[in-house]
Amino acid sequence: MMQQHIDISSVLRKTLACDLYSNLVTRKTGAAVRGQIELLLREARGDGRALTVIDFSCADEVVAKLLLRYADDEESSEVYFLFRGVTDDHWDAIESVLERHELALVLESGDDVRVVGALSDGERRAWEATYRLGDADAHDVAAETGTDHEIARNLLEALWRRRLVMRVNERYVAVGGTRHDG
Questions:
Q1: Collapsing DSSP states into helix, strand and coil, what is residue 179?
Q2: 3-state secondary structure of 139
Q3: ∠ Cα 139 145 149 (to 5°)
């Protein structure tokens, strides 16, 4: 699987070809940045699966449109995002957009990785269980959360469609987590 790192501020500087507007993102510049990110994603999807770590420093709508574009993507490729560097100033705007569009994302802050946004309690518990376990199947998640196997399977599939967990064969790995073999 290809993993890449995208620093939004550097994409913004390249897109605008100057530093003057690096902290001012309009709909037009947001669309240009999103287009540049999508170009980088197309180039990076060698085996059809890509994990992209996004250092955040721009508009909330860029996040929402990226998530909307790749959630439930029926193409053969899978794109996942791990957001890093989100400040309190950014968080208020992002949280509002996530709720409005019923989206969720994985956020890394220091050593803390968590799923945020619009999730059911069951989805949140299933993601957290998968993250703690390193990799899991529906039986593992059911045992960890004290729920039924079929419910756990449906929750994992919902999280996969939302690109919050990666499906590797018959197992799932939380975005932002590590897979433990053995």
A1: coil
A2: helix
A3: 35
Q: Could you give the CA distance from residue 148 to residue 158 in angstroms, rounded to a whole number?
A: 15
Q: How far apart are CA 146 and CA 137, in angstroms?
A: 14
Tokens linked to 15: 């897109």
SS3 content of the chain, % helix, strand, coil (to 5): 45, 25, 30
Burial 105-123 (b: 16+ CB within 10 A, else e): bbbbeeeebebbbebeebb
Q: What is the mean pLDDT of each run of 10 residues along the chain (182 residues)?
A: 61 54 56 76 70 62 73 68 78 80 87 91 96 95 96 95 89 82 40
Q: How far apart are CA 100 and CA 94, in angstroms?
A: 10
Specify the 3-state DSSP secondary structure of 144: helix
CA–CA gap between residue 17 and residue 170 (Å, rounded): 45
CA–CA separation, 105 and 30 (whole Å): 19
The DSSP-derived string for 40-104 is HHHHH-SSSEEEEEEE--S-HHHHHHHHHHHTT--SS-EEEEEEE---HHHHHHHHHHHHHHT-E
Rounded Cα–Cα distance for residues 6 and 55 (Å): 6
| Owner of token pair 């053995």 | 182
In this predicted structure, what is the pLDDT of residue 169?
A: 85
Q: Rounded distance, CA 70 to CA 42, Å? A: 12
